[in-house]
Amino acid sequence: MRNRILFLLCFLCVGLQAFAQISISGKVVDAGGLELPGVNVMVKGTTIGTLTDGDGKFTIPDVPGGSNAVLVFSYVGFQTQEIKVGNAKNLTVKLQEDNMALDEVVVVGYGTSRKKDLAGSISSVKLDDSPLTQLANVNALVALSSKIPGFNYSPTTDAGGDNTASMTIRGMNSIITGPSEASLNKPLLVVDGSIFNGSINEIAMTDVESIDVLKDASSAAIYGSRSANGVIIITTKRGRSSKPTVNLDAYYGIQSWTRKPQMVTDQNEFLNRRREAMIAAGSIDPSVGLDAAQLLNAEELEVYNAGGWVDWIDEVSQNAQIQNYNLSISGNASDKVNYYLSAGYMKQDGLIVGDDYKKLTFMAKMDAKVTDWLTVGMRASYYNASNPGQIANIQSATWLSPYSHKYVRYDGYTDWYERYANGNVASPFWSSSETTSYLWTDRDKKYDNLNGTGFVQIDFPFVKGLSYKFTMNAVKNTSNIDMFVNPQYFLDTRKVEELADPYKYTAEANGKSEINQTYAWTMDNVFTYTKDFGKNHLDAMLGYTRDATHQNQLKTAYSGFKLPTVLGSYGQNLATTQQINKTLKEWQNVGYMARVNYNYANKYYLTANFRRDGFSGFAKGSKWANFPGVSAAWTLSQEDFMQNVIPGLSFLKLRGSYGLTGNQSIEAYATLATVASGYTWYDASSLYIYQNSLANEELTWATTKTGNFGLDFGFLDGRISGSIDVYKSKTNDMLLNRSLPYMTGFSEAKFNAGEVMNRGVELALNTININGDGKDNFRWESGLTFYRNKNKIVHLFGKDANGKEANDTGNATTNGYETARALVIGESINAAWDLKMLGIFQSQAEIDNYVDANGNKIQPDAVPGDIKFLDYNGDGKISTDDRHCIGDMDPLFTINLSNTLSWKNFSLYFNFRWDAGNSSHFIGSDPFGNYHNTATTSGAQLKVAPWSENNPTNDHPRLGYVNTYSYYFWSQRQYLKLKDLSLSYTFDQPWVKKANIQNLRLYLSGTDLFTITGWSGLDPETGGTIAAGPGSSRYGSKPAYRTITIGANITF
């Protein structure tokens, strides 16, 4: 009996020890041994848990279950790990990266989903701690084009440039008549769940956690009428650590042209080219040698004799610096209150003098779990930016003679810039236009944006899985634009008496001011329900959204002052002539939406969504439209019959989707007739009002139908992973301007018309080539994206009475491709409509042998050195009737190849981009980069040799060639570019921890470092062209930026 009692007591003691509450502490690190803050540590089967602090440490004082307890460690981007406590009191847990990241959460529009559960086409980029954040990109979207196939964002050519208006996803869905309408193809931007109304520059790069891009209609249809061009969802950071974490990121860099016009810099070469040009123009006899007195004008000769030479491109370029500072404080107090506060400052100099930008950004983000069922939160941001100055004239800088006077030569005025630098051409600093003078046009742009969001979320305790979220977003955006032309602009610096009286032309001073204000609010009401039953998973969403926008604009114009003024635009009330114009626009959108996701056994997935949208801008009967979408997926790798079928296969999923999305594409009052006012010609005081546009109450939504088929795959436990997508979309009923008969009294009116098709293929591939930890063992990761899109105009305005459908090419052939587009049925929106250049006639014999079927010369008036054109219509002569589609300006395909190498705290990231083209794809028009007949007789010369007997080129015509047919000179834009480069070192020495620094990283980065291309213009990626001749305002492309920076990231 006594032995039995002792045995029972021992059993009870062991049992009590097993179920006693104990205290467990430890540290969580990554594969390289670096501490991970913010890791979620939970006791399995309970609600007890904590987060690791800034040093990766944790403590759970009362762990129920004692030695039998199991701790669950989870962290975004890492594999979840379960560890049994056992007898340990202190644990060191090493988490492994989740290479496939299939459990990664992505934002899908009014909700989230695990990546492996997606049936639509969604691409995601995690920016937190990514090498992309070390690049000197002006905003967070710039780097996406290197990571997301199908996404295009052109490099900036302005300080603080915001190119979101021209960005596209999977090509252009809407017909545009010129670059000014590019925003018709702009994707919808969503930030932290709310539709974003503002500048992308408001969002600091270091504040972004992730970016999700919804590319197919099934994914984007939940946003209805504004999602035809895709949706970009930006999620900003939240707090992680239980104690406050302070992070500082700062960099400083220098910027330069990616490609500069290569000008002649040798004096003899310059004079020889001037001589050849003048001989070709017939202004000198061929017997004249390199005699500067006969080749230069009086002002040029004076500079020449004084040994002067001015490189005007260098003169207008400035030492462009960029500096950026971002400070954030974040935390997650007791897993109840999450907060993130940040402030940022950026200052960027443009590459051309007069282009400067600076901004201040602030963001505050907080949410609090008030009870187990109630969560409240807010997000507020403020953006203040200024872009003062007027850039120097790039046309004059390109073509003005280097034998020019930069400064006035009169004693007492030698610090004044010369207006007519070589006697008759305006200096790049003075300009030939009063509104674009670097010296005398005061121009300032200021932006002040305030954005606030608040939400309340209720997780109903009486219905498990049911929640309701109410979100309210409000925006106030203000822009102020001032322009003032100083009276000094009108001075003639060749006259000393005018220099002595700088305010002589006070009466000519003039200016304009503009104040734009936008007030907008968006309200979202969303119910969600999640239910698991057996192997079935169901989640549903039902919502209602409404938004309103109020825009007002105040414009003033003024001219003429009786007294000198130094107040600029602030003294416009003193002007003798003043004009005021004020406009107001208001519109609203309403949407009802629903989505259902179902999956069985994590193998079979089905998603259906529906949205019904209303827009106040459409007329009665056309205000509403429906936008459905459906997608399905099948995870084959989960099937028993697939096991061990494909060696190394770890994941394989097929998915398909189809949906309808919309594009409003019209202004608030586009369906109404509008009126304008004027004054009669016989009495300037007699005001009259007249109708200046026709009403069209039948205008309605442009709609895009998109089908997508995709394949997601993984091999070798995620060491090789990726996706392939094939898609096709059709857009109908775009808003187009159509010419009207003269008898109507109107030149054009807006109609729904046209059809555009896009089809293409995308590939994203990620590999871990060497699977080391990146610290003691070398690690090498690679990423590849491939994108090919084919764009085609299927219809324009329909068939005429003869059953034919006409192209619309006149605007492009008349005005050029810098401002217009040639719309050709069966071809791309970016089609090139022109004569086909076959080369350059090298001899009279070649001219004589270029004959038609009857043996007649096709170009009988040509001489060697002239362009040889294709007789496209076969009528035996060259005329404008031979214009046809010679290609398009779209890349044949785009490839990005990136690599990340890590070892011994060093990390190297680099990315190459190849935009491919040929003689008919990805071509660009650059007339003044190839045809410089006029400018060479009066100014500088590009370092491009025209045709001559000693230089029998097939690219550039002879000097003296007359461009009779207004050919636009096309050449390939294909290029290979080192797009991104970043080298960093992370310090983990003991002194770092002793200084209370959690993380310290120094980095050196560069963007657009070198380019290989045959393009004749500036940067081939932007299609930058060589500027037109002196005095012109055309083809003045600004340079793209090459940037090299050094920076530091410090976490306390």
TrEMBL record:
Residues 115-231 form the TonB-dependent receptor plug domain. Coiled coil: none annotated. It is found in: Cell outer membrane. It is a multi-pass membrane protein. Its main location: membrane. The keyword rRNA-binding does not apply. GO terms for cellular component: cell outer membrane. Keywords: Cell outer membrane, Membrane, Signal, Transmembrane, Transmembrane beta strand, Transport. SUPFAM superfamilies: Carboxypeptidase regulatory domain-like (SSF49464), Porins (SSF56935). Residues 1-20 form the signal peptide. The keyword Metal-binding does not apply. Belongs to the TonB-dependent receptor family. This is SusC/RagA family TonB-linked outer membrane protein.
